Backbone:
């Protein structure tokens, strides 16, 4: 994606207006924290990430960031049935989200971030985040609805939801 927005003048495009500083720069609220990466010696601040299952795998590779069976699970192309429910880019505290199953736990509290749903389950916009879907549409999603999106080919929407942690239990469904 850097070819599309790698210029310094495009920096605003990579940041949600509610995120401006990284934790290293003093942002203490994880939901408002930007993340940064260095590409070709230049630091780029961001507040969005990709659904890791949207990667196109190189020949001979069958894992995405260590997750096995990626050839079976990854979308690899945008022309998918149900693409309006497949998240592609979304607000995130890191560059990618690798959700395994619908039963994966939510972050234990509003301040901790970790892999899986914890990377995007952020109280950034009154318990919603912005998501761009594989069909190109964008919409705001309530945090609990992240579990209702079709993350990869084998993501089973009939699997049970996790037990919501206390900070999420009273959020709207």
Residues:
């Amino acid at each position: 994606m850097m070819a599309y927005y790698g210029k310094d003048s495009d920096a605003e495009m990579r940041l949600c207006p509610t995120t401006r500083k990284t934790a290293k720069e003093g942002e203490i609220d994880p939901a408002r924290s930007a993340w940064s990466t260095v590409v070709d010696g230049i630091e780029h601040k961001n507040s969005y990430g990709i659904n890791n299952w949207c990667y196109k795998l190189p020949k001979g590779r069958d894992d995405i960031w260590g997750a096995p069976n990626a050839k079976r699970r990854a979308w690899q192309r945008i022309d998918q049935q149900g693409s309006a429910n497949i998240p592609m880019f979304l607000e995130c505290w890191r560059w990618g989200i690798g959700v395994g199953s619908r039963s994966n736990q939510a972050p234990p509290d509003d301040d901790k971030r970790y892999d899986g749903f914890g990377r995007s389950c952020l109280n950034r916009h009154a318990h919603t985040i912005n998501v761009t879907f594989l069909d190109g549409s964008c919409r705001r999603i309530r945090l609990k609805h992240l579990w209702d999106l079709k993350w990869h080919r084998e993501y089973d929407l009939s699997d049970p939801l996790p037990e919501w942690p206390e900070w999420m239990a009273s959020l709207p469904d």
User: Anything to note?
Assistant: The chain has a mean pLDDT of 87. Residues 2-169 form one domain.
